[in-house]
Amino acid sequence: MSPTALTIDRSSSPARLAYGEAFNAASWYVDRHVAEGRGGKVAIEQAGEQASKTVTYAELAEGVGQAGHALLGLGLAPGDRLLMVVKDCPEFFFFFWGAIKAGIVPVPVSYLMRARDLGFIIADSGCRAVVYSPEFAGEVVPALAGARTGARGLVLEAEGGVLDDVAAARPALDAAPARPDDIAFWLYSSGTTGRPKGVPHRHRDMPATCEHYAVGVLGLGEDDRCYSAAKLFFAYGLGNAMTFPLWVGGTAILDERRPTPATTFETIETLRPTAYFGVPTLYAAQLQTLDQVRDQAPAAGGRVGAGGGERVAGSSGERAPDLGSLRLCVSAGEALPPDLFRRWKAATGLQILDGIGSTEALHIFISNAPGDVKPGSTGRVVPGYEARIVGEDGVEAGPGEAGQLEIRGDSTTPGYRNRPELEGRTIVDGWLRTGDQYVRDAEGWFHYQGRADDMIKVGGIWCSPFDIEARLMEHPAVLEAAVVGRENDHGLVKPEAHVVLTEPLRETVGAEPAADALTAELVAHCQEGLPRYMYPRWIRFVAELPKTATGKIQRFRLRA
Questions:
Q1: 398-404: which pairs have CB atoms within 8 A and are 24 or more residues apart?
Q2: Confidence at residue 553, expressed as pLDDT on a 0 to 100 scale
Q3: Nearest to residue 340, comparing CAs of 302, 374, 376?
Q4: What is the CATH number of domain 57-203?
């Protein structure tokens, strides 16, 4: 085995990855493809207004080398951190892999953050520079000024921006020496309960997620075209839209626009991905669009936008999107309600493969699989990972017993940035405490109960907010729901539901206010389908739910 080699043995499950003494991930994910004859193949396609823009593997390798040289020429050195506030575009690939190849540590963060939070991350990360898309200057520039760390701003523009330095740089760049266990990049957690946390990852972490999940579970290969509505700046999107397609020599489809039913359906129709990665909120909104088209064309009946590419014209000229290129639909970020699974399959003929991952684990470690799906379940353990459920007494729970999910695998972070007290509570003896409550059934399927701090004790019995939310979402009037505990006049905790409707409420239904009528209907709906103690005592109709940039509901804000 050469010092830079990586060998993969797929004769067993999970596949075995064996590294040489040195391994710089950029060489494997970028340079390897040119060496293996894929230089002329399209690595990246851009959707939306940039739909004609493509980048081949040879052009990717050149762009990565130029970006790495430009960063070194601007004074960054191996080990320095480079914060990235960059939209989903080829430059994200160039600077992420260019930094890694040069020995610099890229740190992608959400471009939806405000200056205050960006300033915190600039200071917390100790980054030497921030590379950013020009449309985010309104937050990045004041964040840099407020942080007062001396970090340099590098705007992705020509004529005075960092793209001038890239254009002038040499494309050939030798990979900086690195070992498999060296830190390659950082991410920041989405912060469901407070300030984001810096999460370092090693060179070996990305191959583990790609081989165990992308190949081992999804079966991705060189012919696949991966499109992720979830963006590159967090772990789920980083895998879906970058490391997965580059691992197998496939094609990444990028869309810098905010994902909506209109933009995602347009991208699927025009660029024909084979694998689509979304989140439950977006699947719900897409279904709402499909339902509207179906209602406008009642004579057509059956599925709309099905895997076979059927087209249905509505009375207003609208038609169902052609989803015929898709063979895989994946969901993560929040648990997928079983009714969403059933409705999506009925409407499109496609199953949604629900799974759970985390920033700390880099991607999905429990998942449903093609042809092996249990609606309402998160799935079974991805080969290459271990999972256990631990009760409040610290003892591993048996089948049917609830507790906190802990996982272990080759992609989990070695620790946190500047958070030793959190690290000691979260990573114990190699086990990562996820903070999620789960039940595992006798067949090994894992069933989500909610975040540990979101569980509600009603009448002395723990109940899962997810079960109540899933029941509410079975009602045709409900688009989204979030349930928290609230004290009543007697100081007893009962469920409170915050509900986003599919259509605005009318003022009245007969002589009764519409809100009161629908509240009574939803309460009765829950009482019919849940144990009686679990029904929501209050229902609040809201325009939207508070969420992180990754789509996770921030229930702590609803409890405030």
A1: 399/440, 399/441, 399/442, 400/439, 400/440, 400/441, 400/442, 401/439, 402/437, 402/438, 402/439, 402/449, 402/462, 403/437, 403/438, 404/433, 404/434, 404/435, 404/436, 404/437, 404/438, 404/452
A2: 82
A3: 376
A4: 3.40.50.980
Distance CA 101, CA 24 (A): 7
- At CB < 8 A and 24+ separation, what contacts does 539-544 make? 539/496, 539/497, 539/499, 540/496, 540/497, 540/498, 540/499, 541/499, 541/500, 541/501, 541/505, 541/515, 542/498, 542/499, 542/500, 543/500, 544/500
b/e sequence 58-75, b meaning 16+ C-beta within 10 Å: bbbbbbbbbbbbbbbeee
Name the percent of the chain lying above pLDDT 90: 72
Instruction: Give pTM, 2 decimals.
Output: 0.85
Q: Which amino acid is at 248?
A: V
Element (H, E) at 93: helix 90-101
Q: Is the pLDDT of residue 70 over 90?
A: yes
Class of residue 296 by CB neighbours under 10 A (exposed 0-12, middle 13-18, buried 19+): middle
Q: Identify the pLDDT of residue 508.
A: 63
The CATH number of 252-450, from 3.90.1700.10, 3.40.50.12780, 3.40.190.150, 2.10.109.10, is 3.40.50.12780
Cβ atoms of 84 and 128 within 8 Å: the answer is no
8 Å CB contact between 558 and 482: yes
Indicate whether 408 pLDDT > 50: yes
The segment(s) of the chain belonging to CATH 3.40.50.12780 are 252-450
What is the spatial distance between Cα 214 and Cα 216, in angstroms, rounded to a whole number? 6
The answer to whether 198 and 81 are in contact (CB under 8 A) is no
Q: Where in the chain is the domain with CATH 3.30.300.30?
A: 457-559
Digit-coded pLDDT (tens) for 119-153 = 999 999 999 999 999 999 999 999 999 999 999 99
CA distance 330 to 26: 26
What's residue 306's pLDDT? 45
pLDDT at 85 over 80: yes
**In which residue ranges of the chain is CATH 3.40.50.980 found?**
57-203
pLDDT score for 57: 98
Q: Which position has the token pair 């059927």?
A: 310
Measuring CA to CA, how many Å separate 84 from each of 443, 490, 559? 43, 50, 33
Question: In the CATH hierarchy, which fold is given to the domain comprising 457-559?
Answer: GMP Synthetase; Chain A, domain 3 (3.30.300)
Mean pLDDT (the chain) is 90
Q: What pLDDT was estimated at residue 123?
A: 97
Largest CA distance in the chain: 80
The string over 380-399, giving b where at least 16 C-beta atoms fall within 10 Å of a residue's C-beta and e elsewhere, is bbbebbebbbbeeeeeebee
Strand residue runs (E) in 454-503: 456-458, 461-463, 478-487, 493-501
Q: What is the pLDDT of residues 537-559, one digit of tens each?
A: 999 999 999 987 667 788 888 98
Q: Which whole number is the average pLDDT over 253-269?
A: 95
